[in-house]
Amino acid sequence: GSYRGVFSVLLGVMLVGLWLGALGGGWLSRRITRPDIGFVAVQTLVVVSALALLATHDPHMTTRYLDSIIDSYRDGTPAIRAWLEHWGNVRQVLLVVGLPALLMGFAFPLGNAHVQRVEAEVGERAGMLYLANTGGNVAGALVAGFVALPLLGSQNSMLLFMAAALLACVPMLASRPADEAGPAPRSEEHTSELQS
């Protein structure tokens, strides 16, 4: 439903999922040799899991949950009733959004680990990554809320954003891995010192 409480739960699940995913992505980035391939794998899993969870989502899940707790709800105190209502919303949001949010959290640490592998270009590359991340977040929110949802509806908007998530893999795969980047460029002054 389009209620403030449901939106708050959705936002909370997304933020906790991103946080836990970022912790996992940081841990993983220190243990794999090709974080760019890890990034592509995670982005692909985001798309596959989001589409699979939406395709298999049962809109009657809430009704069945409410039927299963009706006795506990009727006999419960106001605190128990509030908890049961809240858990019903959290449970449904977790089932649809939890895994994709967790996987999305992995993406930035893996991308950051990839750009920091070329020491001579780390400042420029990290800056471009932060710019792309921030710009994508702002543009995504604006396009989703003011363009995609009103014009395309929720299902087509989801397909559009899943295509964008896969397209994010292209620059990562197009960039050179650290072991192929070669040594850092040397200045002319440093080269002449080595020759003398």
Helices and strands, with pairings:
Blueprint (H helix, E strand, L loop, with lengths): L3 H26 L5 H22 L4 H15 L2 H38 L6 H46 L1 H6 L13 H8 L1
Describe the fold and architecture.
It contains seven helices and no strands. The longest helix is centred in the C-terminal third of the chain and has 46 residues, at 122-167. The termini are far apart. The model is unreliable at 178-187 (pLDDT under 50). By secondary structure, the protein is an all-alpha fold. It has helices at residues 4-29, 35-56, 61-75, 78-115, 122-167, 169-174, 188-195.
Summarize this entry quickly.
The chain has 196 residues and is mainly alpha-helical.
Identify the notable features of this structure and list them briefly.
196 residues, elongated
Structural class: mainly alpha
Uncertain runs with pLDDT below 50, 5 residues or more? 178-187
Q: Given the structure, what is the number of helices? A: 7
Mean pLDDT: 80
Distance between the termini: 75 Å
- Count every beta strand, where a strand is a DSSP E run of 2 or more residues: 0
Q: What fraction of the residues are assigned to beta strands by DSSP?
A: under 5%
| Oligomeric state of the chains in view | single chain
As a whole number of angstroms, the C-alpha radius of gyration is 22 Å
Sketch the topology as an H/E string, one letter per element. Answer: HHHHHHH
Helicity, as a percent range: over 70%
Largest sheet: none
**What would the principal axes of the Cα set say about the shape?**
elongated
